[in-house]
Amino acid sequence: MPDAEIQARLELALAAAREAGRLTLNYFQQDNFQVERKADRSPVTVADRQAELHLRQRIGERFPDDGIVGEEFGQSDGSSGFQWILDPIDGTKSFITGVPLYGTLVGVTREGASLVGVILIPALDECVYAAKGQGAWYQRHGAAAVPARVAQRSSLADGVFLTSQVDSFRRRGADEAYRQLEAAASITRTWGDCYGYLLVATGRADAMVDAEMSVWDAAALQPILEEAGGAFTDWNGQPTIHGGEGVGCSQAVLPQVLAITRQFPRTSEKVSGTFMDDRAK
C-alpha cells in the first residue's frame, strides 16, 4: 500500500505545481514584466516570485509543519521531517526569451531522502511525476497519465545526450567532459533545464548531464528518474540531490556516462549549502 503521508504530498505537489504553472503563463511571451538580476547575475521575474509564493501558501495551508526550501525565498524550517524543495521557474532564461521549455519543479524529501518529484512544463502542458515505490507517470494535454520509462537503448552511441548550458562545463574546468560526451552520443542538444530530464524520464533522450546545479534544480528529478527505471547521480555516480551537479540517464548508459564524468571531479566550494548555479536561471 502507498505511504499515505507521501501520497497526500504527491497529490498536493501536482495540484500546486499546475496552479503555479498557470500563474507563469500570465507573463509568458508577454511584455508585462521586468527582468531583474540577482546577486549571482541570474535573472528573476515577478512570475518566479508569484509562483513560489503560491506554492508556499498552498503547502503552508495543508502541511504547516513541513519545511520549505525555495530558490526565491530561502528556507523555512519545519518539524515533521518532510521538506519541500521548490523551483518555481526552472529555466528562467528560456522563460524570458519566450521559449516554452521552462518548468516548475516541486520535490519533497523526508529526513533528507527525496521521495516525491513533479516536473511541469506549463507552456507545453506536459508533466512527469513520481513518488517512491509508486512508479513514474507522464501526462500531456489533460489525457490520462501513462507510465514514464527511460529509453531501452544499451549504448549512448545510439542515443541522445542533453545539457542545459555548454559553458557551465568550462566554468568548472571540464570542457573535455563535454567534448567526450558529445563524441560518445549520436545526437547532442541543449534542450536543457528540467525539460531535458523530462525527456530522459520519458525515453526521448538517453542522458542529461549538468555541470552546475542547485538543490532546487535536483530535488524533483531523483525520484522521477529512479521510478522511471533510470538514475540521477552526481558525476561520481552517487545518488544525491546535493552534489551541485547532475547525471540523469538510463541504467544501461549510466556506466558509459560516468566513465567520462568521473575524470573531472568538482573543485569549487559550496555556497550557503548549495553550489552556485548560473546554468539557466
Give an overview of the whole structure.
- The chain is built from 9 helices and 15 strands.
- Mean pLDDT is 93; it is low at 269-281.
- With 281 residues, the protein is α+β, with helices and mostly antiparallel strands.
- Helix 1 (4-25) runs antiparallel to helix 2.
- The chain has 2 domains: 4-147, Fructose-1,6-Bisphosphatase, Chain A, domain 1, CATH 3.30.540; 156-261, 3-Layer(aba) Sandwich (D-Maltodextrin-Binding Protein, domain 2).
- The protein has helices at 4-25, 46-62, 92-96, 167-171, 175-184, 193-201, 215-218, 221-227, 254-261, and strands at 36-37, 43-44, 67-70, 74-76, 82-90, 103-110, 113-121, 126-131, 136-140, 146-147, 160-162, 187-189, 207-210, 230-233, 246-250.
- The chain is globular, with a radius of gyration of 17 Å.
- The strands form 3 sheets. An 8-stranded mixed sheet has the order 4-3-5-6-7-8-9-10, with helices on both faces. The chain has a 5-stranded mixed sheet with strand order 12-11-13-15-14, sandwiched between helices.
What is the topological layout?
Elements (H helix, E strand, L loop, with lengths): L3 H22 L10 E2 L5 E2 L1 H17 L4 E4 L3 E3 L5 E9 L1 H5 L6 E8 L2 E9 L4 E6 L4 E5 L5 E2 L12 E3 L4 H5 L3 H10 L2 E3 L3 H9 L5 E4 L4 H4 L2 H7 L2 E4 L12 E5 L3 H8 L20
Parallel strand pairs: 3-5, 11-12, 11-13
Antiparallel strand pairs: 1-2, 3-4, 5-6, 6-7, 7-8, 8-9, 9-10, 13-15, 14-15
Helix pairs in contact: 1-2
Order of adjacent strands in the largest pleated sheet: 4-3-5-6-7-8-9-10
Residue fraction in strands: 15-25%
| Oligomeric grouping of the chains | single chain
Q: Which percent range fits the helix content?
A: 25-40%
Classification by helices and strands? alpha+beta
What is the overall shape?
globular
User: Measured on Cα atoms, how large is the radius of gyration?
Assistant: 17 Å
Uncertain segments: 269-281
Instruction: Give the integer mean of the pLDDT values.
Output: 93
Total strands = 15
CATH architecture of the largest domain, by name, is 2-Layer Sandwich
**Distance between the amino and carboxyl termini:** 38 Å
Kindly provide the name of the CATH class of the largest domain.
Alpha Beta
Number of domains: 2
